[in-house]
Amino acid sequence: MELRVLGLRPAASALLVTLFFLSAARPPVFSASPPRYSPDWASLDARPLPGWFDAAKVGIFVHWGVFAVPAWGSEWFWWHWQGEHRPDFDQFVRSRFPPGTTYADFASRFSARDFQPHEWATLFQEAGARYVVLTSKHHEGFTNWGSPVSWNWNSVDTGPHRDLVGELGAALRERNIHYGLYHSLFEWFNPLYLADKKAGFKSQYFVLGKTLPELYELVTRYKPDIIWSDGEWEAPDTYWNSTSFLAWLYNDSPVKDTVVVNDRWGINCSCHHGGFYNCQDKYKPGTLPTHKWEMCSSIDRRSWGYRSNMKTDELMDTSSIIQELVSTVSYGGNYLLNVGPTKEGVIAPVFQERLLALGRWLKINGEAIYESKPWRVQRENGTARTWYTSKGAAVYAIFFTWPEDNVLILPSPDFTASMKVTMLGVSRSLEWHAVPGRGLEVTLPSTVPSLLPLQYAWTLKLVGVK
């Protein structure tokens, strides 16, 4: 960020660096027990993933920050405008805001005036989310809590004058929803980061004075269930002190036994190191991975932050969301679906509609999603577009195309004489027959799909499969 954003004159830059070093983060100690994990990837990667995360399956991502003020292009507005100097972004600012407007000026317009954390929590609960991840700080450097190392560039000292991180966390935990915090390791225009970058990341002014103090404070103050790291791609994990931080997190922090982290901790860490893997945005492995993973997706296909100029055909419809969820869970992943609130703190009605539709589907079919495990076959290759999950003695077949003759063919399950087939949301058992060379033929309810509780996808529960 520019020095003027920090409220300092350029002449004070040398003093700024000195003060940063003097305030270098030292991890607080909460445990007297000997460390179980050492600050190296071999040890850290051996830590078992807390079971709640795999069981949860469904999460909501929330991208919210100063970028919601211009609300145009994407959450990367500042970079496109003043990093890449794109003329369309410059024209947008000149046509919408007073002459001489800087990105820092947007902060006072980030009001969160209509932010009702309990309403958000209720919406996310009705959407079927078992966890929520909020951006505590995006690449713009603005923190959604009163970070002591952010000066006036935070939601308590300017804009909302509220602790957005704390308020949402309290509301979610009243509903037993796990709370995660997204945190960007780097900041596009922070002078300390740019100085470290210019030095080839041989210095660590930014890490010691900004990144680590923020991470330690987020953990000790808010006790998150997830730390969703990002912004790591320009520097190695040794620059970020990632392994030292994670060793503290797993050994001594107040969430050492419950917290989970992703894989974005430095160059070459993605899809290699961390509690669960994101690999890349909207990652779809196509086969069953050997490591726990998460697919993050956004209802607005073109942005993670709110855009006032989004169009209907740029948004995911409910059927597409459910297909992504089902395929992700069938391959053993979690599904993290994103919405971007407005600068006032409103989740747009079209986003609410998608979330509530997902929740209605999960109320009937969630048995096949939550706490499920991948089956030996993840999907059928036939026209039925059928995916499988399992739980205990049950195998679930989730299909997206209703057959015209009301007979669904399942080639993969090996039947037993005592096998029972039901449809979630329908009380009675279904008839089935084994046909050599074809597999199971299941006779579906003799009604048009539109008369069933939901029309996007349906789930058969098979008990007694070999």
Automatic annotation (TrEMBL):
Function comment: Alpha-L-fucosidase is responsible for hydrolyzing the alpha-1,6-linked fucose joined to the reducing-end N-acetylglucosamine of the carbohydrate moieties of glycoproteins.
Organism of this sequence: Gekko japonicus (Schlegel's Japanese gecko)
Domain of life: Eukaryota
Cross-referenced InterPro entries: FUC_metazoa-typ, Fucosidase_C, GH, Glyco_hydro_29, Glyco_hydro_29_CS, Glyco_hydro_29_N, Glyco_hydro_b
Reaction(s) this enzyme catalyzes, per UniProt: a neolactoside IV(2)-alpha-Fuc-nLc4Cer(d18:1(4E)) + H2O = a neolactoside nLc4Cer(d18:1(4E)) + L-fucose; a neolactoside IV(2)-alpha-Fuc-nLc4Cer(d18:0) + H2O = a neolactoside nLc4Cer(d18:0) + L-fucose; an alpha-L-fucoside + H2O = L-fucose + an alcohol
Subunit structure: Homotetramer.
EC number: 3.2.1.51
Subcellular compartments: Lysosome
Keywords from the UniProt entry: Glycoprotein, Glycosidase, Hydrolase, Lipid metabolism, Lysosome, Signal
EC supergroup of this enzyme: hydrolase
Domain Alpha-L-fucosidase C-terminal stretches: 378-462
Signal peptide: 1-31
Domain called Glycoside hydrolase family 29 N-terminal: residue spans: 33-367
The protein, known as: Alpha-L-fucosidase
Protein family: Belongs to the glycosyl hydrolase 29 family.
One Pfam short name: Fucosidase_C
Gene expressing this chain: FUCA1
